[in-house]
C-alpha cells in the first residue's frame, strides 16, 4: 500500500528544514509532492529553492529520495524512505517558453498547474476574469504532457480548467481542491469540474485547509467528508489526498522579492481574511484517515485507492 500526499508546502527558501516531511512519513505517507514555486515567485527564487531542496534530499538519503518514476516510489517505500517530487503552482516560471517544462522535469518537477489564482499569459486563475486557455497555454499543455509532468488544475479558473481537461492527452488532477457543493468558495471545484477530471482518468485530491473545508480547526473527519462527496459523485477511483499543509519556519523569509502584494493573490473579496492565516489538518491526520473513511462506509480496497493507489495510477500514466 502506498500513501500519497499530492501537495505540501515548505518555506520557499533553499535552507528550509525538512523535519515536517519526516513527520508526514512517520504518519504513514510514502510519497509527497512539495511546492517549489508559484506564479508570484521569480525564476531566480524558484531555481534557488530547487537547488536547496535537492541538496537537502541528497544529504539525507536515509530519510528522503527524489524520484522520477512509479517503480522508484514503490522501492523507496520498501526501503523505508520518503519519496519526494516537486510541483510548480503556475506557469509563469516557464517564462512563456513551453520548452522550459522539460527543463523543470529534469530537475524533479513531477506536477504543475498553469495559473495561481490570477490570470497569466497561459491560463486563468480561479479569482480572475474568465478567458480560457490561451494559444500559448495550448502549447504549454502539450509540452507538459510531453515532459511527463502531471497536469494540475488547482487554483485554475473553472472555464480554463475544463478546457485544459478537454485538451490534455494525459489524466488531469486537482492536487488540493475541495467540492464547491460542500463549501461555495472560489478555490473549490464544481461538480462539473469533478466530473470532467474523472473523465480524463484523473483524481481530485482533498485539501485539509480550513478555508476550503469550512472548519476553523479541520480534522481528518472533515477531509473524509469531502472525500465521500467526490466518491459519491464520480467513484472512489477518482479521489485522493493533498492536505496542502503549509509550514513557516523561524528566521526564514520566503516572501517573493520586489513589489509583492498578498491582497492581489488572495483577495479579501474572494473570502480570504487579511491577517488571519488558515489552519491546517496536521500530518498526524494521515493516521486517522482510514478509520474516518471506514466510518463513512468505505471498504478497505476503496480506502487504499483514495490514500494512494489512484494517484499512483495517474503517475504511471504520465511520468516518463
Automatic annotation (TrEMBL):
The lineage of its organism: Bacteria, Pseudomonadati, Pseudomonadota, Betaproteobacteria, Burkholderiales. InterPro entries: Metal_Hydrolase, Pept_M19. One of its GO terms (biological process) is proteolysis. Gene3D superfamilies: Metal-dependent hydrolases. It comes from the Bacteria. GO terms for molecular function: metallodipeptidase activity. This is Peptidase M19. It comes from Massilia eburnea.
